[in-house]
Specification:
Elements (H helix, E strand, L loop, with lengths): L1 H20 L6 H4 L2 H11 L8 E7 L2 E7 L10 E3 L10 H10 L1 E8 L7
Antiparallel strand pairs: 1-2, 1-4, 2-3
Amino acid sequence: MLKVIFILTFLFTAFILCQNKNSTSFNYDHDCPTWLKMKIDSLTNNLDNAGTEVYRYDWNERFVYHIHIPINSCVFCLLFDQNGNKIQFASNDMISNFEKNRKSKMLIWERKMNQEN
């Protein structure tokens, strides 16, 4: 009987840990890096950034952040690694790699078109 309780406890714990690891929730205050919060604050204070969205992706086993500003003509010019370093694509192959292998797209912030401050 003790073995059964131990096994059930182990399986329940493993199940809970797996659920948390695969969670797709995002807590802005806890999960958003400080450098990105500062960028978002500057976007929030500029009325010209209506429609701007910030996405997080998994790419090459790391988080990357894409700031999409609709009036910007550059597609991935505001792409940053998890430490806030700007990612520069050296070739079309690298862009293709990003487009094919990015996963877990998550909208983490947006400035709606009709949003004031």
